[in-house]
Design a protein that fits this description.
alpha+beta; 2 domains; 3-stranded mixed beta sheet; 10 strands; 22% strand
């Protein structure tokens, strides 16, 4: 009977954008998403509500919760989800973005788009987000030196070395979206490109997940419970 009540409990149910249903409680988050690191009730509630309201599935790496020691937990959201949150808002009116570079003559150039020419030095990425209910756009500039991710030996990691303009523009866009829609996104939610220097937790396997319209349940052994047709 206790197990039946657990499976019938709708309090922890989340429905994703694609119609999948799963349950996310504090014990599951700690077991599979934080590598058994302790989180507070308020940190779980914040993570749960973000997943529920934005219809995301952390088991598909659409969201992370990162916890180190007694420091407050950090929530990391996939950029596509962050952009979708803004696009779902009736006041969202698009964005513009680009880079700031120094050319070979020492001239600072601000340009639209994610590219730099040979001999130019990348300084920053910028983004402007437009809302129908605001006269002026929300503008953010993200400095490359502040966000580039490096290895333990000081070398820039592969993504930031091979596509630096793309990476820094992604950071600028995320920051601009947060500032433009603070009530929807939250000031303490980041994207992975902003957190590249922070090691993300490794997700533990939770068995074979079948995409159905039934609730996805994770049992105590980490196996997704089959639906009635699979039994």
């Amino acid at each position: 009977m206790a197990e039946e009540r657990k499976n019938d409990d709708k309090r922890f149910e989340i429905v994703t954008r694609t119609g999948e249903r799963y349950k996310l409680d504090k014990a599951t988050v700690m077991k599979y998403l934080t590598d058994n690191k302790e989180i507070t009730d308020s940190e779980f509630n914040m993570f749960f509500q973000l997943c529920k309201v934005n219809k995301v599935n952390p088991f598909l790496k659409e969201a992370y919760i990162i916890k180190y020691g007694n420091s407050p937990a950090t929530i990391v959201l996939d950029y596509k989800v962050l952009q979708q949150i803004a696009e779902d808002n009736k006041n969202y009116r698009g964005m513009k973005h680009g880079v700031i570079v120094v050319d070979k003559d020492g001239k600072v150039i601000e340009r639209n788009g994610e590219y730099k020419l040979d001999g130019e030095v990348l300084i920053a990425g910028w983004c402007e987000v437009y809302r129908n209910d605001r006269e002026h756009p929300t503008r953010v500039t993200a400095m490359f030196e502040e966000f580039k991710a490096t290895k333990s030996n000081g070398e820039v990691n592969s993504n930031w070395a091979s596509k630096p303009c793309f990476m820094i523009c992604k950071v600028a866009k995320a920051q601009a979206l947060r500032e433009a829609f603070p009530n929807l996104v939250g000031s303490n939610v980041y994207i992975s490109e902003e957190m590249d220097s922070v090691e993300k937790p490794t997700l533990k396997p939770v068995g074979k997940t079948t995409v159905t319209n039934d609730i996805i349940d994770v049992d105590e052994d980490g196996v997704v419970a089959p639906n009635e047709e699979e039994k």
